[in-house]
Amino acid sequence: MDNIETNDLETQLLECYLFVDDYLQSNPKVADWRRSNNDDPDFTDAEVIVIALTGGYFRTDTLKRTYQLVIANTEGAFPDRVSYKQWIRRLQRLLGQVGRLAWAAALRGLAGEGRKLYAADSLPIPLCEPARHGRARLLDEDGAKFGVDASGGWFYGFKIHALIHRPTQIVITAMLLSGNRRDQIAARGLARSTSGGVLLADEGYRGEGLFDWLYDQAQTLRVMPSDGSGEGHSAVSRASRQAESSFSGLWRRFSNRVYARSWHGLWTSLLLKVLHFNLDRADIVSQPVESTRD
Predict the structure, then answer these.
(1) What is the pTM of this model?
(2) How far is CA 57 from the centre of its chain?
(3) How far apart are CA 160 and CA 179, in angstroms?
(4) CB 286 within 8 A of CB 57
(5) Rounded to an integer, what distance in angstroms lies between the CA atom of residue 103 and that of residue 275?
(6) Which of 38, 59, 128, 238 could lock onto 132 through a cystine, CB 3.0 to 4.6 A?
(7) Are 172 and 186 within 8 A, CB to CB?
């Protein structure tokens, strides 16, 4: 096991723990979800989530590798920690808490921000290599389907759709849908997370019906680089390029290798990456001196 000699990890652990524990303490209805006699374990839910969040620090592809690196490099930080199998079972029961934490981090980063400029995009989450498409069955019962990526190639799995607040690059909301679901379907759910504004989108979000629905039902104006010309067109194109840069920073956190064996496990892993991204963009956690990757 590799040991990492840096104070960056200790700082990030502390910052993550303070945010997570403060949120859970301030929201007892979210924290008090157990209905058994063992409702106050020594190894707390905050610690369970914080260990998982270090995957954003280590840039690891699996939760197991994240757990191993934390244990190897944080002696004494989690004296009541449980085994990996117990930890992963605990973590997968905290999906709702992770989602609420991602939203709380977004609200912290958006405090005092009045600009209503958003961008929508999607990323395929393939569950297998193209050579295995003929035998693909993983998570079929959970909605995994064949879809087409932005380059026109086929993939088998899901798509993650995200709405980003363009000025701050914070993720407002995210959705995991079957690979064959069209971007236009996701756009309606994403737009409901705004209070109106301007939505930058690519060709996947084209359609007069969608344009009218966004304007009438979500008070959102969808704008594309091809919607205009001249100076306004240039401004939209520049904003779209900036939005693509924002998404690239988010999408780089997702691995092309998927190890989850359930929709629940997959979505938990992806939401943890979104949460860490928001913690970073909202300046809740410090940037490490050097990026560390397994």
Answers:
(1) 0.85
(2) 14
(3) 9
(4) no
(5) 8
(6) 128
(7) no
